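Record now logged underneath.
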Amino acid sequence: MLKQERPLGVLFLDINAYFATVEQQERPELRGKPIIVVPMETDSTCAIAASYEAKKFGIKTGTNVGEAKRMCGGLIVVPARPPLYVHYHERIIEAAESVLPVEKVSSIDEMHCCLIGKEREPIEARRIALVMKETLRKKVGEMIRCSIGIAPNTFLAKLGTDMMKPDGLVVLEAKDLPGPVLGLKLTDFAGINKRMAARLQGAGVFSVEQLYSKSPQELKAAFGSVTGERWWYLLRGYDLDLERNEGKTLSHSNVMHPDQRTDSGCREMLLRLIQKASARLRANGLWAAGMAVSVQGFKKSWRAYVRLSPSQDTVTFNEEFLRLWEKRDYEKPRTVGVVFYDLATTDHVTPSLFDSSMVRAELNRAVDKVNQKFGKNTIYLAGIEKTKDRADEKIAFNKTWLFSEGKGDNKWAEESEDR
């Protein structure tokens, strides 16, 4: 039987407008101005972050750059610098840990700490949160603002960070629920997207109040899985962890620069992505038994799949790709991508008697070692000569590190300097 006592237990920290905030911290001339961070300097791409000054014009993550410029005449467009964001992420963790041990890092801009003993008392929890905010400003930078949610479990604490931005502080005590959250929309809850909201509405759940009114069995039916039953407890502050599915694919994609949106440009970039993704397979001790390649077009898109004996060999993947490429069918390309799936670790792979996968794997690992020792692209396949320096590593919000293809790759230039 679950205990009825549900004290505060989690302090969740969310850095506001992370990429844009870091840029404003590094470049004082950008402070107080509407800026967006973009993967490349072209009006056809989308913003990956927007400062709060830009958000006042309705600009948000995912807004087309050309449209964003029309929405805000004085908008400043800033190219993304992923190594810088990872560098700040590490500094933020270090600063946070000087206040409370970080229990888990959820993404590049989110982490949470556990509260114990007197820290669980609302007044003390608030005091700690304010100390955390001030510590980030002093140790990382005056522009580094965060929203903090404090609640009995991680689910509600994360919800609290979204209820007051920027620089917010929300405490959700079990005894007060559901009162403080009744004004939210269903889609304000992590895990309820538009599709799930439509499903819930089909089950008669149109509001947060109705969500709370359902029994565990009714929520299980509404969600269509046991997840709904778990939500009943999470919504009330019980300390449960949502099940997480481990990633079963490894992928890379690239928005093509307008000058490269040609047939040959797409082919060369896909070869580059295969090289990069296969190096990641080897670095993680993984083998792929399936590969998908795609070209997303403005008018027509193309996608193809191939099954193969488990491999981590770049040349093998290239050969399979070139066979698929003969049947390509797309118009006006925009984005290319490669996905490796049906992944397995080395100890779960049985070598084939009819191919040289294991021998080639050793050759690839030797190439990787040379690049790690002497630098990225010290050795590379001739087919990617024009694209070997493209497809830089991106830092998505659910990622906290950058894969290194060679010595010094993706290191922030100032990491070793005293700040």
